[in-house]
Fold:
Amino acid sequence: MSDKTATVIPASDTERPRLAAPEKMPVTQIALLAFVAAALVVLPFVVTGYVLYIANLLLVFIVLCLGLHLVIGETGQFALAHAAFYGIGIYSSGLAGNAFGWPFPLSMLLAGVVAGAVGVVIGTVALRMRDIYLALATFAFGEAMQWVFLNWDQVTGGPNGLRISPARLGDLEILTDRQAYPVVVFVTLLMIALTIVISRSRVGRSFRAVRESDVAAMAMGIPVRRAKITAFGLSAFYAGVAGSMFATFSTYIHPDSLGFQTTILALTMVVVGGLGSITGAVGGAIVFGLISEFLRQTPSYQEIIYGLILIVFMMYAPRGLFAFIRDQMGRITRG
Amino acid sequence: MTLDVVFLFLQQGVASGLVIGSVYALLALAIVVIFKTSDVPNFSQGEMVMAAGYIALYLLVFRSMPLWIVMPATILAAYAGAALFRRLVLNQVARANGSPVNLVIATLGLSYVLRGFVRQTGFGDTPRSFPPVVEPQSIMIGQAAVTTLDLVILATAVVVMAAFFWMFKYTKIGRAMRAVGMNPKAAQLVGVDLTRIHMIVWGLSGGISAIAALLISPKVLMTADMGSIVTLGFAAAIVGGFTSLPGAVVGGFLIGIIENLVGLFISSRAIVLAPFVAIMLVLVIRPQGLFGGRVEIKKV
Amino acid sequence: MKDRITCVWLGAALLAAGLIHSAGAAAQEPGLTEKTIKIGVFSPLSGANMAYGFDVINAAKMYYSKVNKEGGVHGRQIELVIEDDRCNANDLVSAVKKLVEQEQVFMLNGGSCSAAAVAAKDYVVRSKVPWVMLNASADGALYPPTDYIFGAFSITQYAVGGSVVDFGQQHLKAKKIGYINHDDAYGAWNLEAAQVTAKEVDVQLAVESINPNITDVTAPLVKLRAANPDMIAITTYAKPAALIIKKAHELGITKPIVLTVTGTANMSQLVENVGNKDALKNFYVQDVLADAPGGPKIKWVYDMYKEYYPDLDAKPDHPQAYMPYGIAPAMSVVKALQDAGPNPTREKVAENLRNQKFDSGVMAGPIEFGQNDRAAQESTIYLKFDGTQQTLIPGSFQSRWKYKG
Structure:
């Protein structure tokens, strides 16, 4: 079994995998896109509020994963503080709504900007670190932020958690998942579009150059420092927006939900979906979000099943679910 | 706070810090041994300790076996389990040639599986312990109270560290491990069997985990989730430089002492925060940790 | 370029569609047929906090089966839909929404984790579904009182913290109490009540708040020793509690130690974990059951468990310590349904719950709500424990904390 796989994929320890670079979309993908769009429109008319709640959560995770994709997949910087930025987003938009009654588009922007600003600071401080050191420094920052959420009682409500008042826009109040859904879908699409634009722009190219090699990027005249800080800031901005999306359909946040587990979940989604591609990040979030929800039905074995899924994926679909499907399809069509 | 109290707190803080720090040091050693040779931060290290602890619990308490059988049996089982995981799973993951982070996700997968299995046994929920390897008796050092068990843990951490340091430096297999850590391709070219070396390294790390489990379980109590203590092992490893064995031990002591002093002089609430602040401060000042080598810049 | 425009256009259309479309009015009394009534049950059935929910649900289940065997409620059989909430806010909310919207249950009976349960508060109140919690204290969802949410069947944390201070003052004549709590929701609530009570009974508190994941408890104890209290109250979970008691002995602290119900899950294992009976020379525990676990007053619960789950009962550590806590909430649900008559509505059931009072025979005090009170159980008992023998201490010890609405 393992020998066969080895012959399909050239074995080499040092060669980096070829990660999908964005290209022009073929017709089949446009058709797929149209199908997804139709499904998104029809969904709220045919399913219960529970399904829409799950959909909303998945969409939040898609945006979280896109942020992680930018900093890890595109720029190759292992930043593991995503839950902290997500939390900053939830608390900023929640507080803006609670205390000042801001309309939600404004508090969303605020959430993104605050998280992004903190991200830029962290990115600047972390410039000299790399690989495991960067990963663990950002991990430490994430844990420290969770502690701050838990202990800064006056602002976050501390261990009591924070009640988030309903998102509003003028006279409109969002009270149900059904009402929140179009907003959440809209913002998600906007963020996906933004990611595509970034990825195809000069900024995206500088990200990928930094990922492949600092030195080479520098030699090509790419401002490596600026690229890294931008990636950090953008990634945090995405997490902040994801947090404020969560705040539109949730009524309560507790620091318990903002620990390393959340970061790891997003990382898992990005890697299993396929590191380095937007489809991978989006698809990984959907597939793993659904797996997690379905596993609630098999309580006593779910940890074992979840662990085995991770292991098997890493053994036999190393470049992600979608690359795996593509390879298999290619093999079938080749006969 | 009077000067007397400050002095008492300092003594107790440093003594307890060294004691709990030796626990972190043991965990850090197990992490560093693997990282040195394969660049993989093992996310399942804590669960390896936990699983070894439950093997020992089963043999000691439920099978009533004597300690002199249980100790080697547990270490052997952990060695075999870890080596097999490397051979059967991680080899395939490495060969499949995805991103380096895939290996990390695979270890994460193992941590879920181990926790799930221990929970299935029904023993995982209630905090448990087994009779300690040495009967803990209170000893006063100055004005600080520690126990005999604490001193044994401390000594073990130092001995394990020294043994591995010696092995890496002076034995053939240790040199092969270092070669694999520096450049696996070159090592392979000069005839090092990569698979074998990786298996041995994982086995040894499993062995350290088992020793740690035998010593610390009565001290920190076992549950299926006790693996989370490994966070502090990672903190110790990173403060010490992540590739340095003496660094891991010093890092462990440092984290332990900082935790205690922060608890005594600042606030008990801040104890859990202290290691993370320590990580950030150390890395901002020295991005490669206290004992790490120079940061390599990735070339083409 | 083209797909960007498509995205924006699509999003705008969705936004418009969703805002116009509003949820249809709820059908009259979901979950109810001539022969059955559907109840949604949820708790952690997996992961780290499984011990808080698994056997509690089993206890509720066996009580419902018993009721069904005896003919049900007004001729209706109780049907349970069980969900795993993983003790986590997002999953708990998704379990609750699934039960209410997809399964269309008549009412809810679930929740073992306080912080997670609070997350469902607004949704449940907006949906007007009666919700009787299992063993969650979830004081954050009980105060301020709502029309639909009822909890704290084991005990409210406001009673835990207040009563232990009262006990220290009355029984142990303490003037200064060292108080160790957690820095989580539970800890915040019991500390608040402890402070109120301490002020009223004129006791000084020296407080150390620790994280549940703490591995080294030396620092807080050394600080408490320096503060020289007359007694130490521990309101932590089982694992830190065992570490603290052990360390206190190592540090030569001989003052009385009182462990609240938060950490008393398995007393024989606690003795083993502490490892030295001398450490328990001056040791008291708080409990909320009518009797010591397995004692004569509540033996029937354990017998029933054995009868319903012989396989589980044979497993180590089963029934789990919190198992009996599942009985009183199920009794409360059944009683409220019975009192609501043959044609129950959610409103009638909620109304009955608000005025409910009965003695469960399982818990230390009566299950009692009131117009401004959604916490079911507020009584505690105290036992002196020497490592083998538990002796009941007579007297009643009350929290002075009151909700100020």
User: Anything to note?
Assistant: The radius of gyration of chain B is 19 Å. The domain at 3-285 of chain B is CATH 1.10.3470 (ABC transporter involved in vitamin B12 uptake, BtuC).
